[in-house]
TrEMBL record:
One Pfam family linked to the record: AAA_19
Listed name of the protein: DNA2/NAM7 helicase-like C-terminal domain-containing protein
Every DNA2/NAM7 helicase-like C-terminal domain range: 1005-1214
Organism field: Methanospirillum hungatei JF-1 (strain ATCC 27890 / DSM 864 / NBRC 100397 / JF-1)
An example Gene Ontology biological process: termination of RNA polymerase II transcription
Amino acid sequence: MTKYNLSPSLIARYYYFGCDRHLRYNASPVEERTRIHIPESKFQQSLALAAILQSGFEWEEEVITNRITGKIHIADRDGPLHKRTHTLDETLSILKTMKPGEYLYQPTIVMPQSLIKELGIDTEKFAFPPCRPDLLFMAEIDGKPTLQVIDVKASDALKQSHQIQIALYALILEAIAEKEHLPFTVDLTRGFVWLYNTDAPEIFELSHSLSIVREFLRFNLETIFTDDIESVFWHLNFRCEWCEFYENCREEAERTHSVSLIPYLSTPARMYLREAEWGGEPINTIPELREFLKDPASEDILNSCGSLRNNRKRLMHTVKSLEEGALVSHGGSTIALPVSEGIRFFLTLQEDPVSGRLAVLGYRWTAYDKEVLGNNVGTFVSIARNADDCLHAQTEFLQNVFSTLKQVADYNYGKEWARQVSVQVYVFDGFELTLFNRLLFDSLKVPDLAPLALHLLFHFQETVLSTADKQPANEVVYPIIVLSKVIRELLAVPVHITYRLPDILKNLPSPGFDFQITPSKFFWFNLSNIMKSDPLFKYWKTGDEKDRDAIRNEVNRRLTGTGSILGGIRDQVKDRLFAYPQRFSFPSQANFRNTELSQIGFIVRYESFMGAMAIREERCLPMSERIEHGSAIPLTYRYETMDGAHVFELDSPLDEGLFESNSYSFRAILTDTSEEGNIQQMKMNDYQSRNRPYLPNHLPALMSASDVSPFTVDDEGNIREIIMNIAYKSCHTPFEDGEKAILHPRFMDYNSDKIFKQLIEIDQKEDSLFLQLLRDPAGFSSPLSPDAKITSKALEYIRSADFMPSKEKAFDTVLTRRMTLIWGPPGTGKTHFLAKSVVALLQAYKSAGKRFRILVTAFTHTAIENLLWEIRDNLTDAGLSDDVLLGKLDRLTEQSQDGFDLIDSQGLAASSSTEPYLILGGTVYAIKKYETNLGQFDMLVVDETSQMKFGEFSLVIGILKTDGRLVLAGDDMQLPPLIQGEYPEPDDGLPGLYDSVFSYLRYRDSGNVYTCQLLENFRMNTTLSRFPAETLYGNGYIPATAKIAGRKLLITDPCDAADDEGSEFLKWALDPDYPLVLCIVDNVRATVDNMVEADLTARLACYLKKCMINHKTNETFPDTLKGHKQFWGSGLFIVCPHHAQIRLIRKLLNKSMTWHHPPFVDTVDKMQGQESQAVIASYGVSDIETAMSEANFIYSLNRLNVTVTRAKTKCILFISRPLLDQSYELLKNKYAMAGLNHMFNLRRFCERNGDERVFPALFAEGGEKAEITVYRGRV
């Protein structure tokens, strides 16, 4: 039997390559590889690889000899430093006596048997030979010695594989410390990587990587090492070229016509086709895929894999292209490629792989009119003469780029629009855009380059501008276009694996300019457009100008080739292009005096702009894809209603979730089915018309649809008919019965301009509360000195309210400080606290004979009205109802029509002068609307501040008196604000101005000057409170009373059910003694709807309906309208991330029994702030690609936290096993990793505090079978 050798570095490389075969081959003993048919390694050494290895040794020596100041334990050996390693005995001896501040270089450690046993590793099959971390450091944390792991890497950036390697070292060291009774703890919270040319190690959070390592060794390792080595999974992607077995795999793929040759086929998609989990034949070759795709039923099969979903036609085009060796059009269009431009500008950039510094940079431009730049073509290439010359090369490049573009701007200046020229900048590959953006970002930190970089960033706009000192006044549409991305959107090209520039040139020749590149192995990788570093290292070594000229010629070839490809693309799709670039000028600077306001202004406009562009891009997809996405809805006109609305029948039923996600309800675009209508809706510039209700006259085929809503919805949640208002233009003939139409989504934004205007107003003030708060939150929250009588009366009222200790402390802060941040975790009664505090202060001021006016706002109407209702009840209890005007601005929701007054401008005019005691609620936009009539307020209460951004908050803070109280409530561990862009973190690592107001302020209150956390939980029992307490809120977060702590799910016992595996699962999962239940689902493949989870969820719900006892009546819920409404209102919530899963569960619920009230099955967004006795959550997604494509959504820690904390007595979560698998890409997303780690913590909590049971064969509707591992927790 073969025994496989594993190590931290090998497992780290497994995560880099994402390849089972790579791990299996490398773990196999060298002496046995021939016998078990492992091919010979063919990795070729190169100048670049040699340089990387040598730089690694040199960097280690530099760190050890020059960068470390403390004592270092180095093995007493001869030879180079990097070869001096301690033996295992020496290592243990040193570890026993190491003192804080000391380092240990290259120790030898071995995984103890205790850790091997804990991880369930088969010692007959696997061995962990001795391994050697680079560096250990003995720190002192809280007065205790703590060992930390440091990896020394000659790399410019922290990589995910580094984190995995360090995590495994830390696990081994922890086990060693326990076994040997060593006098220290191992730091399992932080890992350290000492990156190239840095003065100190970079720190990263280790807990995420530890979870991944444990998960992999416990659950995934064994599946890779099956008996049949031929069955081990493999696939080809761009990283494979760095694998020593690449040539063997490439040869095998070409020999067998493997589907791995399909360009950009993802690893999970390749696995899905191979495993054929749908019950068909495995698909391993392109001919097999062709035959499979012929069957229309393949569409549904592909929809179970994220990257293949809705892509049957694209796959058919790709297969046809590869087999016939010809281009095939996908259809559709793009706004990212203009019809033409006055000047084409092409960029390429290459980096030194050791330092990560840009060393080769070039651009080429071509102009239709030589008058603009003095010629029709120009080229510039900058090459660093050595590693230390990179900054000079970058400076030279940026100066020339700016000079060329400024020449165009100067040419255009003062000319009429028709005589001005446009510029469009292109790169071929996405990595070039990444490097260019990084260059601009890094240059902002170089004093001599910063002004130049900022000027260029005004045109090449990126989210980094959110941290710059100045921002542009207007937006630029597609400043840089990535041509390889455009090709993938529009065409299938007969090229294998990846789109290399030379290969694309062969297939997309430019008319009249058939330029070709013969890729030299000295310059070109097989699977990448990145230039090999060998030529650069050769030049740096020799200094020979011929070597420099060879690099320059290669860069020129690449730039010329990129230009040729642009011509080739246009020749293929010219009939489908419609966009034109803007006439070129550098955007002017936004006219702000204060940097923070300029940054917020940029964020507000950038968010709006990105939202508009996302909708436009969606509207340019091929029609079939748009229909699948719900971004085009084919309709048939039916009739006009009595009040002038129009009813259309959908040609195909549409899921309500797709309708909602495409934002049709406010404004939409309606066209007939003509090609002209389709072209004009693509031309529609949503951002330009974002705040105009009607559509531009120059697009006559477009009709404006408003108040679009479902008219007829079936029991499964599918829309059958919709109703809308139509604004016909004079050229339109009204629709008649039976006429066809298409509805398209439209981006609307009435608010960003209001916010921008408000920011300008704030900027013009000499003294702004808003800026004070941003710059010095602690200073803003200065102490107040209220009248002693007011203080006494307020405290008297609060004492009568029976506040818990944390609320008493919080109210004291509200009473005595100008600003208070109320951190209200789930169930702590945040709304109750705010209402009591408002009434206490109002009563106190009234008793002192002083006016007191309070303004209440929040992110949503519901939150505002919930707080106003609570205030109303407290006013009544205090006998103040007749003395206080309580109202809401602008509009009331249906449930609040009789609750309080609706206040308009006339009412405000009267109340502002006559009402001494006033409590007004309103959205930030309503408050801004009536600002002139409102006057100033003594107290501003903002609820849901964790969902509010600074742009919105700026609209209301000016309403507060200078010495008024500001109370901000929220919980940034619950749902955050929606953010479109990906913004760089501030240098201090704290939340930025793009984040929520609450998060920004809480993390800047290191001394808890103004932040008060409510701790007593009035909702969840002990178990359901303990998990979020241990992971998020701290151990002070506990049930408020013993009665709440002991809450249990009340069900009749026994409940009638068949005696089978499924019923046994229901009883086991619903056992009241175990409030927290996690169900890990195996053997199911689903993207957004999961039949197994849906079926079990529906069965649990129906079981609960029969058996659950209403805590209020002590009886089961009756089968009446009232009974079912109560059951779904306070008995049970069902939560799902996707509407498809919601629809499926509703369908099964309706099939199982007759409901007199619709079941509460919805997204977590609809349940924040609500609670019920029990919650069932079905994640549904079991496809890792679907999860990865929406990682910040599926793996959201905040969403999982909200889900778990809604239930009072019982929470059951279904999560599919693949969601717990970790791809290399997921490791790069720290927000998603935090959520994944929370999932792991949930399972560990249940394991530690409960038991588990495997149900091996649970059948769902339709016969689908799954294995479910159920973890139950209780404390």
